[in-house]
Amino acid sequence: MYFDTHAHYDDRHFDSDRDELLPALFEAGVELIVDPGCDTASSRAALALAEQYPFVWAAVGIHPEEMAHDPCDLAVIRELARHPKCVAIGEVGLDYYWDKEHRAEQRALFRAQMELALELDKPVIVHDRDAHGDCLAIARDYPGARGVFHCFSGSAEMAEELLALGWHLGFDGPITYKNARRALEVLALCPPERILMETDSPYLTPVPLRGKRNDSRNLIYVAEKIGEVKGLTAEEAAALCMENGKRLFGIGDAPGRSRCWATPAPASPRSRRSSARSTTCRCCIWTRCSSCRTGRSARRTSSSTSCGISWAATTAGSSTGTTAICCSRGGWRRPTRS
Q1: Could you give all domains of the chain from N- to C-terminal order, each with its CATH number?
Q2: Which of these, 193, 191, 192, lies nearest to 160 by C-alpha position?
Q3: Which residues of the chain have pLDDT under 50?
Q4: Model pLDDT for residues 265-310, shown as the tens digit of each residue
Q5: How many CB atoms lie within 10 A of CB 140?
Q6: Which residue intervals of the chain are DSSP H helices?
Q7: Which of 35, 56, 136, 244, CA to CA, is 20 to 30 A from 20?
Q8: Which residues touch 20 (CB under 8 Å, ≥6 apart)?
């Protein structure tokens, strides 16, 4: 089970095979993806993908590289951020590598989007390239903000301060590169509960596939490196990062922050218990029959949905059992017995 907390499937590099690739990722074990927007158009595109694919979630924001090409209308970003499948403000931040002339404007936009995240109580996905000092200074100025420094490339000292402020750190393909000494030092000191696993697809492809288009199936190489550094198996590292990501972004059963993108139940709990009616939720790819939920699912045997919300327990040996009900107003609820 993998959670890619940063992948740009709205990017033009996926135009030729996006509709084939995304289902294949899910079948390969990528159970959750966050697709961050980089401007108004890509934020809309990320939300459209999140609506189409139940395991994809979106972030909205204006990337520093795109500010010259975008109207930077934060009223629009604010409205997009209210979508039920938007889980963060991002990708936002500072990039002094590509744009050395508009640093003040970048900082102003970054601050405005940090304030928006606080207003909406959403985490922030931060891009920081060659701007470590200013990014850290802005993080200090917003102690109530939370989120992730995506593809962290700063020093161990910067990492320790961000961790003390409550931030998460994202690790991508570059930790598999031969020159990854500093990133591995940071990974070693990072508490396990603050590590997120990312691909930044279609970019930052890990070794041994470096140079090819990246996608979320390559998280295995990132998981192996995280496991090597932290003394875990790749599977344990993936499970750890899955829980960290769900908790930060409020996806699944994170306490108090569940966002079930559900459809109304088509029948009452009473009629549901008495017939072989199927129960489904737009959080889930598969549908199962209410009358054969116990031990007879050909599609999946786990007791959890793809978004991490557990089904109510069934009664062993029962012909009908007890099933969870998907309700657009109440989220997941357990039907009462007659």
Answers
A1: 2-249 (3.20.20.140), 260-338 (no CATH)
A2: 191
A3: 253-338
A4: 333 333 333 333 333 333 333 233 333 332 222 222 333 333 333 3
A5: 11
A6: 18-27, 40-52, 74-81, 103-120, 132-141, 156-164, 181-189, 219-230, 234-249, 269-273
A7: 244
A8: none
